[in-house]
């Protein structure tokens, strides 16, 4: 049994369940798939998630609440835009997810929130922006990251990059 604690430059493997604090609705759950592995201290996770796990070790279970600023941020009203329907795929409807390519090549996910007469309302906010989130996390494994992982900035092997 390892007694390694989660800290900068470790690889943490966890199972988690995420719910919206206000409604209790579950938005994500790792228990029906492989546990999540991440390299600690490289900004791979939302800030509060990582911070709440620092110092924990295998078999620790922790439940914590994250305000929007420690999770996906506040909703940005400027990230909601009206786009002419003529510039969009046919037959889109509210709730559809689209992807736009930014000038720097990054893909920006968009949610169609309304279809108007000549435009659609598109929301670039993360779907969890503005939400306070509750996470129940169980630590499955903690190990030191390898030199190679640290130089790549991501986890290798199960739950990580396979290369
Ligand atoms: Zn790599």
Mean pLDDT across every amino acid position: 93
Structural class: mainly beta
Q: What is the name of the CATH class of the largest domain?
A: Alpha Beta
When the domains are counted, the total is 2
Helix share of residues? Answer: under 10%
Q: What is the correct CATH architecture of the largest domain?
A: Roll
Percentage of residues in DSSP E strands: 35-45%
Q: How many β-strands, per DSSP? A: 9
Major β-sheet profile:
5 strands, antiparallel
Brief description of this entry?
The protein is 8% helix and 37% strand. By secondary structure, the protein is mostly beta strands.
Write the layout of secondary structure elements.
Layout: E1 10-20, E2 26-29, E3 36-39, H1 47-53, E4 61-66, E5 80-84, E6 97-101, E7 107-115, E8 119-123, E9 133-144, H2 147-152
Antiparallel strand pairs: 1-2, 1-3, 1-9, 4-9, 5-8, 6-7, 7-8
The chain binds zinc ion (ZN).
Residues 152, 154, 156, 161, 163 line the site of zinc ion (ZN).
Please tell me about this protein's structure.
With 163 residues, this protein is mainly beta. The protein folds into 2 domains: 10-72 and 128-152, Chitinase A, domain 3 (Roll), CATH 3.10.50.40; 77-123, Thrombin, subunit H, CATH 2.40.10.330. Helix content is 8%, strand content 37%. The chain is built from 2 helices and 9 strands. It has helices at 47-53, 147-152; strands at 10-20, 26-29, 36-39, 61-66, 80-84, 97-101, 107-115, 119-123, 133-144. Strands 1, 2, 3, 4 and 9 form a 5-stranded antiparallel beta sheet that branches. A 4-stranded antiparallel beta sheet has the order 5-8-7-6, with no helix packed on it. Strand 1 and strand 2 form a beta hairpin. The longest helix is centred in the N-terminal third of the chain and has 7 residues, at 47-53. It is elongated, with a radius of gyration of 19 Å. The site of zinc ion has 5 residues, from loops. Zinc ion binds at residues 152, 154, 156, 161, 163.
């Amino acid at each position: 049994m390892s007694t390694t604690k989660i800290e900068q430059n470790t690889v943490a493997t966890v199972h988690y369940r995420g719910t919206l604090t206000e409604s209790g609705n579950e938005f994500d759950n790792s228990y029906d798939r492989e546990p999540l592995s991440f390299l600690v201290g490289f900004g791979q996770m939302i800030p509060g998630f990582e911070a709440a796990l620092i110092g924990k070790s295998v078999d620790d279970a922790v439940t914590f609440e994250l305000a929007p600023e420690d999770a996906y941020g506040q909703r940005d009203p400027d990230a909601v835009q009206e786009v002419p329907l003529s510039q969009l795929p046919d037959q889109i409807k509210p709730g559809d997810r689209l992807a736009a390519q930014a000038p720097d090549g990054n893909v920006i996910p968009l949610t169609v929130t309304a279809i108007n007469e000549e435009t659609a309302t598109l929301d670039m906010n993360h779907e969890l922006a503005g939400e306070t989130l509750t996470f129940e996390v169980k630590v499955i494994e903690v190990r030191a990251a390898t030199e190679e992982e640290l130089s790549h900035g991501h986890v290798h092997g199960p739950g990580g990059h396979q290369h």
